[in-house]
Each structure stands twice: as C-alpha cells, then as structure tokens.
Design goal:
This protein is mainly α. Helix content is 86%, strand content 0%. Helix 1 packs across helix 2, helix 1 packs parallel to helix 6 and helix 2 packs across helix 5. The longest helix has 36 residues.
C-alpha cells in the first residue's frame, strides 16, 4: 500500500530521512559532550562519567520543558495560522540550522541549544503535524500504511544512521564536524521532500479526495 501510493511513499522516505538526521545528530552530540568532559576533568573515567551524566540530565530537562511549552502554546497556533504545509517545514529548517552550527561552531553550549530546539520541536510541532498529514487518507491507509511508516521506515532511519556512522568512522575517520555537514545535506533533501508533501496535502485537502494508488 505504501509503495503503490506516491503520497504515502513520500511520507515514508521523509520520516526515514528525518530519523537518520536525528539519530546521527545524537552521535554528534555524544561525541562533542565526551570530548568536552575529558577536556574539563581530564582522563578520570568516573569524573568524565559524572560530567556526561550531568550534561544529559540538563539536556533532557531542557528538551522536555521546551517541548511541553511548544505543545501547549505554539502547536495549535502554528496549525491554525500557518497550516500543515508550513508546519511540516519547520523541523527540517531547524535541523539544517542546528547542524550548520555544529559544523561551523562546534562548541558544547552552541550545539546544546541547537539540539534542544530540534528535539523539542520534533516531539511537539513535528509530531502533531506528522500525524495530521494522514487526515486526507483513506481508512485503510490510516490504519495499515501508517503503522508500517511509523514502525518500519522510522526504525530504518536508525539503521541507516548506524551504517553511516560505522562506514564514515571506520573507513574515512570522519569527525563530528563532517557528520554535521552530512546532516545539513540530508536536511536539504528532507526540506525539499517535506515541501512536496505539503503541496500534495494541500491539494488533497482542497479536493477532499484520498491519495490514489499509482498504477
């Protein structure tokens, strides 16, 4: 069903790309955090562990607080005033900005702010808009194809990220800044795909016709 319907296939590959970017971003953040912790406390493994633990404690706190704020006060206004076609573009734009910062200003606090903004937006605005993309779909597409997209294609993003990190670190000795550049390139592809999906969503909503299966 996914592969026979262009609209669903675009969504599937958009989410695969999105999760590849996000998972690779977590690798970039982890690498920068570890290096910053070693620089701050030396090679004492226990002290490094405490520094990393404290960082991630703050990181997830910031993400959850900002995500809750966005969900309560921003999401409905984005959908009402900007619409789903614009809402679906917000996260790829933020991600390109975040990894641009990581690539050119790879300082811990700069990357922290960028990743907090990215993940909080993912858990709030993007999660809501992503589910709204299925509103013009048929019942079968909502309850069958959506499950495949939300499970298989999203998890495939993790697999692609793992392969990307393995290949680039093993054979090319790529550093976090290099991965940040890759994420910016993937973010551009994600943005273009999201824009196309937004256009199709708008057309489907206007016609009130579900996406047709391709021949």
């Amino acid at each position: 069903l996914v592969f026979k319907t262009r609209y669903l296939l675009l969504m599937a590959f958009m989410l695969l790309l999105a999760n590849t970017v996000n998972t690779t971003g977590e690798y970039i953040l982890g690498h920068i955090v570890r290096d910053a912790a070693i620089e701050h406390v030396g090679n004492d493994s226990a002290a490094v562990g405490r520094e990393i633990g404290q960082f991630y404690s703050n990181y997830f706190t910031y993400v959850n607080i900002l995500g809750l704020f966005l969900q309560m006060f921003v999401v409905s206004r984005v959908v009402k005033h900007l619409g789903v076609p614009v809402g679906v573009l917000i996260l790829p734009i933020l991600s390109m900005t975040a990894y641009g910062i990581a690539g050119f200003i790879p300082f811990l606090h700069a990357v922290l702010g960028a990743k907090v903004a990215e993940n909080a937006t993912d858990y709030s605005i993007n999660n809501t808009v992503r589910n709204m993309l299925f509103l013009p779909c048929t019942r079968e597409q909502k309850y069958s194809a959506k499950q495949v997209i939300d499970s298989f294609f999203v998890r495939m993003g993790d697999v692609v990220s793992a392969v990307l990190v393995f290949v680039c670190t093993t054979f090319f000795s790529l550093h976090p800044r290099g991965f940040a550049v890759i994420n910016v390139v993937l973010g551009i592809a994600w943005f273009l795909m999201a824009r196309r999906i937004g256009q199709e969503y708008k057309a489907l909503s206007a016609s009130q016709q579900p996406p047709a299966m391709n021949a």
